[in-house]
Specification:
Layout: E1 8-12, H1 16-28, E2 32-37, H2 40-50, E3 54-57, H3 66-75, E4 82-86, H4 93-101, E5 106-109, H5 117-146, E6 172-177, H6 181-188, E7 199-204, H7 211-221, E8 225-228, E9 239-242, E10 248-251, E11 257-260, H8 272-283, E12 287-291, H9 300-308, E13 312-316, H10 326-332, E14 338-340, H11 342-353
Parallel strand pairs: 1-2, 1-3, 3-4, 4-5, 6-7, 6-12, 7-9, 8-9, 12-13, 13-14
Antiparallel strand pairs: 10-11
Helix pairs in contact: 2-3, 4-7, 8-9
């Protein structure tokens, strides 16, 4: 798909009205809708026949639901980027987080009542376009790797020499991520020991209501105790605190978690930069920042502060990122101490912070 080619998309939703709405919005935005499906079986058949660049997927469908479709796609070896378009609420957060962990590219909440329809359209179009570009990029990277053109992080696990930490001291860990983050965190957190360093903080860009489900999912699978921050918690080596969606997580005196309802920055709340800057001032050289997959450049300003205070910065290698945006911004600015593929990140973190 080049710049002149329209992204080809399949739309799956059991509501005929929502299929029509989504199709109209996509078509108006220059997207080629190559087929619509009312259930999961139809969606899989369409994807097999049409080979689209991306798909929109409702989670609640009769018969084979959205999660089943995602699992079936992965079982078939398909890497089709899927944007989940579904009616969400805090009570449905677990299903949404499961979808992201199963490989969904992004989430878009259906407009309800007096919701911002224009905002829904912008959000949907932006994420579908990015998903389609990402799918093509993944295919190009696979071809390059088969041809022996993999980057520095493209080797097999175990080919690198054992890592040694930069100095014998315990450090705090701060992880920042966005698109693709729930899947990356679901792989990374279970591989980390507990207790770990001085404590762990996580900023994942998500809407309100979903980060509590993310924390609960991570808690079930990890040795660290993962919790959504409520404010007032002291950073604890046995705990990973997750910034709540819709609020900024900050650090107060003594490294105590604080929540802020200040305006979103660059459309983001929580904003990782704010917490990173607080952590850099609190811990100085005793902080390791890890920036995983995500679009945009959140974390760049914070990384500058980490380096200014003597801390360390690790970023995920492009070869394992869903979206190489946040890590790329830091690499391009010359702020990365290490560039690490996801499957090696746990070892790198332990070498950094668990002395």
């Amino acid at each position: 798909m080049n710049a002149a080619t329209k992204p080809r998309v399949v739309v799956a939703d059991d509501s005929a009205l929502m299929r029509r709405i989504v199709c109209n919005l996509l078509s108006r935005g220059g997207i080629d809708v190559v087929g619509t499906a009312a259930d999961g079986d139809e969606a899989l058949a369409l994807c097999e026949r049409e080979r689209p660049d991306a798909m929109t997927l409702d989670l609640a469908m009769p018969g084979m639901g959205g999660l089943d479709v995602l699992r079936a796609l992965r079982a078939r070896g398909a890497e089709l980027p899927v944007v989940v378009v579904s009616a969400f609420s805090p009570s449905q957060g677990a299903r949404a987080v499961d979808a992201l962990a199963e490989g969904a590219f992004e989430l878009v909440q259906k407009p309800t009542g007096g919701a911002d329809v224009d905002g829904f359209e912008r959000n949907l179009l932006g994420k579908i376009r990015l998903a389609a570009r990402t799918g093509v990029g993944r295919a190009a990277r696979r071809i390059g790797l088969r041809a022996g053109e993999g980057g520095a992080g493209g080797g097999r696990e175990g080919e690198r020499p054992a890592r040694q930490g930069p100095g014998r001291m315990q450090r705090a860990l701060l992880i920042a991520t966005s698109t693709g983050g729930p899947r990356a965190l679901s792989s990374l957190l279970p591989a980390l020991p507990a207790p770990l360093g001085l404590g762990t903080l996580i900023v994942q860009h998500m809407p309100p209501g979903f980060t509590s489900s993310l924390a609960a999912r991570l808690d079930r699978s990890s040795r660290l105790s993962a919790r959504e921050a409520q404010g007032g918690e002291a950073v604890d080596p046995a705990v990973a605190l997750v910034a709540p969606g819709g609020r900024h997580l900050r650090l107060g005196a003594g490294g105590v978690a604080q929540l802020s309802d200040a305006d979103a920055i660059g459309g983001l709340r929580p904003r990782a930069d704010l917490l990173i800057e607080d952590a850099a001032r609190a811990w100085g050289e005793r902080l390791t920042l890890v920036v995983l997959t995500g679009m945009g450049s959140d974390g760049l300003r914070g990384a500058r502060e980490v380096k200014r205070h003597g801390g360390r910065v690790l970023v995920e290698d492009e070869c394992t990122c869903t979206v190489y945006g946040m890590p790329r911004a830091i690499v391009n600015a010359g702020l990365a101490d290490e560039i690490v593929p996801l499957h090696e990140m746990a070892g790198a973190i332990v070498a950094e912070v668990a002395c």
